[in-house]
Specification:
- With 127 residues, this protein is mostly loops.
- It has helices at residues 5-14, 63-69, and strands spanning 15-20, 26-30, 48-51.
- Strand 1 and strand 2 (26-30) form a beta hairpin.
Length: 127
């Protein structure tokens, strides 16, 4: 699955490439955007979008680009994908729905059994 014909055409006609991230995703904005003054003096937002490299998976958008896409800030990310703090972890894809998804002890997909614990749960039974 990839980019639809409509998105590809819209991007070709109206898109301005503003950057890429470490995963090869490409980020665009509308090159024809003109701030419009409306009744209250508000400006219209420019249109922003991403073209994914491979399968479209929203969790593959780094935080820096997510903030730009959602108008949290207007400056384009610089040094995207670089660690900023020692406690930050590397990107891990969302594995939900795949054979590699996390399945905690007791999960039906792991056999449905878990080790008993002291003071374990007692199900309600009608009297």
């Amino acid at each position: 699955m990839g980019v639809t014909l409509g998105t590809r055409l819209f991007t070709w006609l109206r898109g301005e490439l503003v950057g890429t991230d470490q995963f090869g995703n490409r980020y665009y904005r509308d090159k024809r955007h003109r701030p419009l003054k409306r009744g209250g003096g508000r400006e219209s937002r420019e249109r922003r979008w991403v073209i994914y490299n491979g399968e479209p998976e929203a969790s593959r958008v780094p935080p820096e680009w997510h903030g730009w896409l959602h108008y949290t800030f207007d400056e384009l990310p610089t040094g995207a994908g670089q660690k900023k703090y020692p406690w930050q972890k590397e990107y891990v894809p969302n594995l939900t729905g795949t054979p590699d998804a996390y399945r905690p002890p007791g999960s039906v997909l792991r056999g449905g059994h878990r080790a008993r614990a002291a003071g374990d749960y007692q199900p309600w039974t009608p009297e």
